[in-house]
Amino acid sequence: MIEFSRRLTFFLILLFVQVLILNHIHLFDVATPLLYVYFAMTFHRNYPKWQVLLWCFFMGMAVDIFSSTPGLAASCLTLTGFAQTYLLERLVPRDSAENLDASIAALGFSKFAMLCGLLVVPYCLLFFALEDFSFFYVIDWGLKAISSAALTLVMMLAVESIHRK
């Protein structure tokens, strides 16, 4: 029950920060920080996969409701939650703790940054491909996706360094 309340509190904090602040930031009219993707990173190693998918779906759906993007964030974040469970298994040693958190302290900076990159870059590519739903402006799409992924990665690493202290 404590885990549920902690996760729900983190869910609400990330949701409100994204909706009230970050959705209104468009750096150079291309880069938008999508910090709510960090929520998919916070599940530990043996967290039930079906719960990861549900949490990620509901986070994406909540962002969609407040951002007027029906189903866009929900589908992308659910896919990211699905990928997180398998990528975390591949990046940690087999003899590590069963409830290992995906954090800088547990994985080290390089593995954590790699995990973040492997989740955030495909998320942003898919998110902006579905948002534009056109490949007529491939350069604009790529610029939005890569710059948003870079900004999101920097913010995730900053939040992780603050959150885990």
What's this model, at a glance?
With 165 residues, the protein is mostly helical.
Structure description:
With 165 residues, the protein is mainly alpha-helical. Helices cover 70% and strands 0% of the residues.
Tell me the major beta sheet: none
Structural class of the helices, strands and pairings?
Answer: mainly alpha
H/E series, N to C? HHHHHHH
Helical amount? over 70%
Query: Based on DSSP secondary structure assignment, what is the total number of beta strands?
Result: 0
Q: Quote the beta fraction.
A: under 5%
Shape: globular
Write the layout of secondary structure elements.
Elements: H1 2-20, H2 38-41, H3 49-67, H4 72-91, H5 104-107, H6 109-132, H7 138-163
What structural keywords apply?
165 residues, mainly alpha
